[in-house]
Amino acid sequence: GSSATKESSSDTIQTQSSESASGDTQDDASAIKVGIMYIGDENEGYTESHMKGIQEMKTALGLTDEQVIEKTNIPEDESAYDAAVDLADQGCNIIFANSFGQESYMMQAAEEFPEVQFAHATGYQAASSGLSNMHNYFTSIYEARFVTGVVAGLKLNELIENGTITAEQAKIGYVGAFPYAEVVSGYTSFYLGAKSVCPTATMEVQYTNSWADMSGEAEVASQLIANGAKLISQHADTTGAPSACEQAGVPNVGYNVDMTSVAPDSALTSAYNNWAPYYTYAVKSVIDGTKMDVNWCQGFAEGAVGITALNEKVVAAGSAEKVAQVEAAIKDGSLHVFDTTTFTIGGKSLEDLIAEGGDYAKYADYVSDGYFHESELASSPSFDLRIDGITELTE
Amino acid sequence: MDLLLTFIQKAIGQGIAILFGATGEIVTEKSGNLNLGIPGIMYMGGISGLMGAFFYEKNVANPIPLIGLFISFLMTFIVSALGGFIYSFLTITLRANQNVVGLALTTFGVGFGNFFGGSISKLAGGVGQISVKTTAAAFRASVPVLNKIPIIGDLLFSYGFLTYLAIIISLSMTYFLKHTRKGLNLRAVGEDPATADAAGINVTRYKYSATVMGAAIAGLGGLYFVMEYYGGTWSNNGFGDRGWLAIALVILALWNPNNAIWGSFLFGGLYILYIYLPGLTRATQELCKMLPYLVTIVVLIISSKRNKHESQPPSSLGKAYFREER
Amino acid sequence: MEQVNAIELKHVTKRFGEVTANDNVSLTLKKGEILSILGENGSGKTTLMNMLSGIYFPDEGEIRINGNAVTIRSPKDSFSLGIGMIHQHFKLINILTAAENIILGLPGEKKIKMPQVVEEINALTRKYGFDLNPMQKIYDMSVSQKQTVEIIKVLYRGADILILDEPTAVLTPHETTKLFQVLKNMKEDGKSIIIITHKLNEVLELSDRISVLRKGTYINTVETKDATVESLTEMMVGEKVSLDIKRTKPTNQKKRIEVCNINCRNKEGLPVLTDASFIAYSGEILGVAGISGSGQKELLESIAGLQKLESGQIFYHTPEETIEDLTKLSADVIKEKGVRLAFVPEDRLGMGLVGSMDLTDNMMIRSYKDGRSFLVDRKKPRKLASKIVEQLKVVTPKLETPVRRLSGGNVQKVLVGREIALNPTVLMVAYPVRGLDINSSYTIYNLLNEEKKKGHAVICVIEDLDVLLELCDRILVLNSGKITGVVDARSTNKEELGLLMTGTGEEKHKDE
Amino acid sequence: MSKDIVLLNKEPFIRMVKRDSITTVKAWFIRMIAVILALIVAALVIVAITKQNPIEVYLGMIDGAVGSKRRLWVTIREILAMLCIAVGLTPAFKMKFWNIGAEGQILMGGTAAAAFMIYFSDKLPSGILLIVIIIVSSIAGLIWGIIPAFFKAYFNTNETLFTLMLNYVAMQIVTFCIVFWENPTGSNTVGIINSATKAGWFPSLFGNVYGLNVVLVLLLTTAIAIYMKYSKHGYEISVVGESEFTAEYAGINVKKVILRTMMVSGAICGFAGSLIVSGASHTISTSTAGGRGFTAIIVAWMAKFNPIAMILVSALLIFMQQGSVQIATQFGLNENASDIITGIIIFFLIGCEFFINYQVELRKKSKEGK
Ligand SMILES: Nc1ncnc2c1ncn2[C@@H]1O[C@H](COP(=O)(O)OP(=O)(O)OP(=O)(O)O)[C@@H](O)[C@H]1O
Ligand SMILES: Nc1ncnc2c1ncn2[C@@H]1O[C@H](COP(=O)(O)OP(=O)(O)OP(=O)(O)O)[C@@H](O)[C@H]1O
Ligand SMILES: [Mg+2]
Ligand SMILES: [Mg+2]
């Protein structure tokens, strides 16, 4: 294996990474080809994090530049299919795609190339597709969001303690992209984190109807602040919200990237995904010829999610300790983010509602042992319940 | 109350970028050039101002806000003027079709903005990591003392200098067009270049100056957006379709920069209204986002029914001029 | 001290592609004289003058102004040499006021001091005897007012050499007289003047000397006192031509067009025709006289179905003696009814023809709808085009040339030729010889006479009263949209027509 | 005479003289030179901003656009869509109706196509469904075209801005519809419509998925070429475009022609919507039109409305676009770089028309005696 990697490393910038990784590469690692198509490019936080993951995978498995073909800015239409089959045509053994809307096109390609593995992030149809070469993957980002929620809650507590706001005024504003499970699960976990330390916290959610509308996110943040929000968080991809918060002097929690560069005096921390574990795992499975998970979802324990460095200038005292404690609890399984005792829906517990039947019956599979088993049945988030304490401003 | 105040503030904030664009386009159109490249030029202006500030802050240990401000302002001015120059060269000297050149320039300009936006993003260490804090703070600095007055301070004095500059430029452009010889000559060029030519006006020079100047002014809209509105960062396509709205505003304003001022605030307000109207669903929000466009259409129709000589576009708008042509 | 000339052109040549518009032309304008330049359409008069005004740049030759050799690269250079040109087509900005037009492009203080400008303009108008409101917008002005603005514009710039290109083409006789008085005043004032016109009587009346161009070359210069209409025409054309209109007696007259009490308004909502009624007969030429803007255009357009009527009726009496009601029918419906109406509008390239299309496609304007086919037939129109080119001696490089490139006279021939080819029972023509040289004018008059002889009804608007009196059988006079009389052309005279045209109410109307 | 005389002895340094005519060969030669110059300038830009070897970059583009059979067909598919829209714009532009609303007309056509695919897949047999889809998408585009035409005809409303604004209105309508069609709820993605049944999809023709696209678009192009050049309607359009007064004089019902022409133009653009939705993407989103409506204006214009030239120009632009995907992958040059390069090429191509129409004359030293 090492000889192959050395050969190919001669003409590229890849030198140091291939060398460092040459230790545990399999013999046929040099024969493999990996393709990935991104919804955006390096200028967009979500895609950038995937790119980092791919880069780390390359390093870890000692792949050369030629072995990884990256396609950027692939929209969620026939171009996704074109890109996927083009990657397959070029001899890729495994092909990744990172955006929700590309899933059906991936499946179309997967059907055409049964010998190639197709893995799709955020999607949910692999299991039901009947295609053995179709896979879904995602991270347990809700865990990281819960932790950032804790940081936010502590900040609210600080504001209450120093008399800036009253306990009743502890309102969080949340800038969401679209009202589906991925976002709902995200903001709920964030809220539960905040509430776990600041019990009076409430939250308002406003949607931008876009994944990356910088101005829209900034405007929604401003509106939430004008509406009384004392802290802002987001599940959308740009720095719009933090930038508006910086101007208004409102603490905020970001997503994907460290926001301290645009909001040095107001950003607390951000939740982020680390895709390297999955990409390494998936590509290694192909190299080894082992079977890949149809659904893959991992969190803190495996290093697939995390939070960026706390902005000491802004976070409440003692945040770091509390964060360490919560992270540990999540890792060892003693803390479940969607603990059904921590929230109610219309004043009732989720278990009660399920028992009542009706619309809630479908959640029966997810709830056991006192918590909602997020991302366990499928890799993509499935928690889409609207719990008490959170108001969606968009109806 | 807070909501209303924020709404007005933000409407103005949204409006100013459009106002720069519209004022620049009015000046341009007064010379008979319909520059559909303005949306692209605004991207070019935005990114070059940001780049100027970025490299300044990156290479200097203790950046001085005013210098950063000056550099970025100058960069924007030069690069957007350059965009205007490309347009002018092609349409005035080479007499190419204005619509095609404009559209191509918009493609080029948006590509230019996003390309370099991406590049400096990379240099800065990743997405959202561009920050020209020092310079942006200078752009965002509001009027001291006065901004502390409750309500009035928020409403009138909470903006950076570009906001006031936009209004000053619009007011002085109106004055320029109405009361000065050069303004009169410019209007003549836009109405009928052959006549202006026969009157001894250097048509080419006027067309060039107005178009280049108009582009430079419009480019400031991009700078405003990047610096004052976003606080010194970049997002690809982050400027959206505001450049097109700026062109629409020209008509709404009946080619009078003074009208563009309130028009831009109206557009700004309509642009974000959906966020402030309570009780909207996602679907109705989307309908609400149509408002700026629908309002433009309605105004277009109304103004076309009122067939006043003075509210018509410059009559040579869109046509190339060649002295020896008949 | 030797007397220097105001302008000396030496061996000037100007080409446009294949066309040599001026070929080695040398010409002199003395100080303080009025020089007429004569020539057929397309003989290069305008081109020559445009080289003095900086619109064109000569390919070869030398220009001397006041004895000094100069290079004129732009109108600005021309101004600074004291040359002022009043162009064949007005160069005024419609939405600006007279004063704004006058100071256009001039240096001066950055801010315009309008009251001061107005005072200066008033001083000029008083000096030369003009009548002008400097604050009036051009779009509100009549043709003669616009021309006044043009002249003042030149004077305001301090020009002492004036060039007027066909200034009288659109003026009434009365206005022409006024203009000539002004020009004479200027000459007294020491100014040198060049005037281009096709009206030979004006030439003889006004100028000191006359220069003649033919097909781009300089022919000769004569003293006015030695010249006659015949000698000048011969110089222009290069051969003797007879300038008679052979008017025949109308025969077998029948009602053709009957107009009853029509009213209509213009775009601004002002009435342009009031209760107009008349009858046009077959086999006669009915002339329409009136100062410009009295409703001539609207009268013809109403009949042609191009003008919205407020009230009134228009009937067409067919040769088969049936009656068609044309009231409120549009042009296409009239045509579909089989009414053979031909119309040569005033605006040749803006209405009668499409400038950018070639001769063939322009022929089709009237006939493209013929036949059931979805596709057009270009064979017949092409044949027609070449027939017209041949019969009317249209000067054109080829049939595929866009008509915009043809000279005014040739454009008019193409247009009239096409309309006559419709074999119409009613032919309406507006200003058929405006801007045409004398030779082409007579060609057109003869065509009209031939139509009349064929027994068709001809209605023509002509501004030249002499021609009206010579050409027409009856003359209808319009004054401010009202028909003030229909007189017999053989028994009336210019004075009577002039009275009918102006009437007593005229001044009042103008002031409103 | 007190006036000071200005002596001007300098002849202008360069002068433009209109050419009478130019041979086709010479004209194409000039265009060729323009393309080559553009490629050289673009190469300099590439070197300046990316330090890549421009030849390799260009080879990468070629590979990306036509490097495999599949890529070739994708490129052809995109050329066809572009051509279709440019053809659709032609009648409007010939009439001097500045329809920059193709984007919206495509979106409306696409939306109609998607709606019928969604709601009628089980109600109509697939052949009929396809025909219905083509018809309704054309009608949707037609409606989007006739609205500004109506106001232009009756109120002389500026159509450039009207159509531009309608683009955004259409965009919002699409977003609005997506709220109802998205799957799963809230995700903003419609996904492949009828992926199992393929109802409403363009069927394969001659063994090629895009065979029908080729046939339909080429038929349409031919039809419009004939329509414009040889039909009475085409003649009317030219006359109205040149002068409304002449048109009225010629007995042309100008309002009718404006409405009819925009119906044709809008309908073709609407059909392009179904070409994209039913014939390629099988989904609907706000990027369904993807700026094609604007690019097509450049295509139609640069081709001077000549259908053959339109094929060439759209091929060139699409080639750049498809090639850029590859160079982004290969050289890490992001796609925006291709916008810059495309912009440069267009600038040169537009600019070179000047040298086809005019001759530049430098100052002649020999004459001018003084
Ligand atoms: N802009 C132009 N481009 C090309 N050729 C021109 C242009 N202007 C004039 N010509 C050519 O120059 C010749 C002279 O035209 P010019 O306008 O000087 O004639 P003219 O004597 O003024 O005629 P008229 O009595 O009808 O006014 C014409 O034959 C025409 O071919
Ligand atoms: N742009 C042009 N290109 C080519 N030839 C032209 C052009 N303009 C004018 N000409 C030529 O110039 C000649 C005369 O043109 P011009 O329009 O000056 O005639 P004209 O008699 O003065 O018309 P009018 O009196 O109506 O102004 C024509 O023979 C025509 O071929
Ligand atoms: Mg002339
Ligand atoms: Mg002439």
TrEMBL record, chain B:
GO MF term (any one): transmembrane transporter activity
The domain of life for this entry's organism is Bacteria
Mostly located where? membrane
Ranges that cross the membrane = 37-56, 68-90, 156-177, 208-227, 260-277
Q: Does the keyword Transmembrane helix apply?
A: yes
State any GO CC term.
plasma membrane
Task: Describe its membrane topology.
Answer: Multi-pass membrane protein
Subcellular location, in the record's words?
Cell membrane
UniProt entry keywords in alphabetical sequence: Cell membrane, Membrane, Transmembrane, Transmembrane helix
Name this protein carries in UniProt: ABC transporter permease
Automatic annotation (TrEMBL), chain C:
The UniProt keyword set, sorted, is:
ATP-binding, Nucleotide-binding, Repeat, Transport
- Lineage, uppermost ranks: Bacteria, Bacillati, Bacillota, Clostridia, Lachnospirales
Q: Which Gene3D superfamilies match?
A: P-loop containing nucleotide triphosphate hydrolases
InterPro entries in UniProt:
AAA+_ATPase, ABC_carbohydrate_import_ATPase, ABC_transporter-like_ATP-bd, P-loop_NTPase
Q: Name one GO molecular function term.
A: ATP hydrolysis activity
Specify the ABC transporter domain's residue ranges. 7-240, 257-505
The protein in question is named ABC transporter ATP-binding protein
Q: Does the keyword Cytoplasm apply?
A: no
Pfam families xrefs: ABC_tran
TrEMBL record, chain D:
Residue ranges annotated as transmembrane are 28-50, 70-93, 105-121, 127-149, 161-181, 201-227, 257-277, 297-319, 340-360
Alphabetized, the UniProt keywords read: Cell membrane, Membrane, Transmembrane, Transmembrane helix
Q: Which GO terms describe its cellular component?
A: plasma membrane
Signal peptide stretch: none
Give the PANTHER family listed for this entry: ABC TRANSPORTER, PERMEASE PROTEIN (PTHR47089), GUANOSINE ABC TRANSPORTER PERMEASE PROTEIN NUPP (PTHR47089:SF1)
Query: What is the protein named?
Result: ABC transporter permease
**Matching InterPro entries, A to Z?**
ABC_transp_permease
Q: Name one GO molecular function term.
A: transmembrane transporter activity
Q: What is its main location?
A: membrane
**Origin species:** Candidatus Galacturonatibacter soehngenii
Location relative to the cell: Cell membrane
Instruction: Classify the protein's membrane topology as the record does.
Output: Multi-pass membrane protein
**Keyword Cell membrane: yes or no?**
yes
